Every structure is written in C-alpha cells, then in structure tokens.
Amino acid sequence: MTEYLAVDGGTIAYEVTGSGPLIVLAHGVGDSRAAYRAVVPHLVTAGYRVAAVDLRGCGESSVDWPAWSRSDIAGDLLALIRHLGGPAVLVGHSVSGGAATIAAAREPSLVTSVVELAPFTRKQSVRLGDLRVRRFRRGMVRLLGAGLFGSLRLWRSYLDVAYPGVRPADWAERLGRIETLLREPGRMKAMQAMGRSAPTDAGARLGDVRCPVLVVMGTLDPDWADPRAEGAAVVDALPAGLGRLEMIEGAGHYPHDQYPDRVVALVLAFLRSDAARA
Question: How far apart are CA 38 and CA 174, in angstroms?
Fold first, then answer.
C-alpha cells in the first residue's frame, strides 16, 4: 500500500513491508520503487522492515520540486527514516548511491550501514581510452541522448544495454511500467533534471562517512569503462576499513534487478558481518 510523506518541496511516496530492523531502498534515475520488487520479499523473509521509496519526481511522488541534487535526495531519505523511526540501513542505486553517502555523513545516528549499487558517488571524467570500450560507448551515447532530448526511445535503448544478458522474467511488464510513468506530465523533465546533477556533492562527503559501506558493481555496467575501478575508487575514498567492494559477474547497471538473489545474499552477509563487528 502506497503511503505519502510531505517534505519540504513536495510529497514522497513509499511502501513498507515486514517487521524488524529498518532497511530503506532508493532507486536510480528514471525509475521507481518497483526496481526492488524482487529484492523486498527476500529482505522481509530475512527479518527486516523494508521501506521502498519513490524518489522526488519519480513513481508516485510529486513532480514539481525546486532542486534535484543528491544532497536534496539525501534530505528526503533522512526525513523518511526519521518518520519511520530509524535508524536504518540505506540502500541506494546509481544517483541514490551518492545520496546515501551524503545521508550517512550528514546524520550518522540515523544510518547504520550503506549499500551502494552501481553508484554515481564521485566526480566523473572520461578518458580517450574509455571510448574504445564498446559497451561504455554504446551506453554513454544512449544515456546522454535520452537526457539531452528527453527521448523515451533512447532511454529504452539505454536500458537494453544496461541489462546485458539476463533479464527479469517480467521484462516486458517492467519496461511498460517505466514507459507509462515517464509519459506522465513532468516525469521525463524530472529525470532530465536529476540526470544533470553532478555527483561532486556526494564525493565531497565520502571521507565523512562513519558507518560500514558495501559497494556492488556489475562487471558489464555500461556506465563505466572499468566498473571495478570505479567501485574501488569509491571504497578508497572512504575512511580506511569502512568500505567493501563486491562484483557481480555479468551484471550491468541494475544488478539488483538482474540478479536479486545474489545482491540480497551479499547484503545479508554484509549486515551479518557488520553486526558481528558491533
């Protein structure tokens, strides 16, 4: 059942399932909380209360917002955690990976652990050699084109590259839901605005994080020429000993949707090790 939280600037939609320690799931650009539809049942079975949230401008959240940065998204996530009686484990995909970093640095009492899935958490730069990687070149052209022109066709073409090989059993339904949402008034403009926000605000806070962080990258993620190197750079920018990188062979930019069982196994093992350390 969808619930709504009024925050400064708009209304955030979310859904809570299960009982136990709180985990908040935040999706990436141009998506909705449905991205975690295969993850939520596993986490509930493992004994967690799971809140899947629609980012500002996405899903069932309101459309008109004054700003779209990772810092703004972090404020929304922290407001939800407070509302639900945190602290929480915060899971963020892509743009939300950066937002989760900021939230953890800003309010360490509210965020016990962070999981970053294919996160945009650092300033990005493209080297000439990166363009020789066909997967990266194809993804970048489609991603930039979708953002620049607000093209649903190019966004769908990007998703074809971002989901290499294995796709969810409900792939056609998944694409249909994404397209339906992005055709709603204001949704595509929200995606474009969020996509234009730079991750420099998140990168500036990596050194301020005080909780354990798990970074999960797919080996075939088209958003980077070398996904492993990007994930390792995020871990290296954290305080020593806090970060851990895990790679999922064959996954693209949506490891939690392509391989939900593997992602959940990594998350649960990470949380168990974190509890053991505490």
Answer: 12
Q: What is the pLDDT of residues 76-103, one digit of tens each?
A: 999 999 999 989 999 999 999 999 999 9
Two structure tokens written together for 50: 């799971």
76 contacts 51 by C-beta, under 8 angstroms:
no
Query: What tokens does 205 get?
Result: 């806070």
Domain spans in the chain, listed from the N-terminal domain onward: 3-277
User: Given this model, what pLDDT does residue 130 score?
Assistant: 81
> Are 93 and 71 within 8 A, CB to CB?
no
The full DSSP string for 165-227 is S---TTHHHHHHHHHHHHTSTTHHHHHHHHHHS-THHHHTTGGG--S-EEEEEETT-TT-S-H
Give the pairing type, strands 88-93 and 3-7: unpaired
pLDDT for residue 274 is more than 90? no
Helix ranges restricted to H, 107-170: 134-149, 152-162
Give the span between the Cα atoms of 61 and 102, in whole angstroms: 21
CATH superfamily of 3-277: Alpha/Beta hydrolase fold, catalytic domain (3.40.50.1820)
How many H-runs (helices) and E-runs (strands) does the chain carry?
11, 8
Q: Which single residue is written with the structure tokens 């979708």?
A: 146
Look at 94-103, 135-144, 155-164, 167-176 and tell me which has the smallest mean pLDDT: 135-144
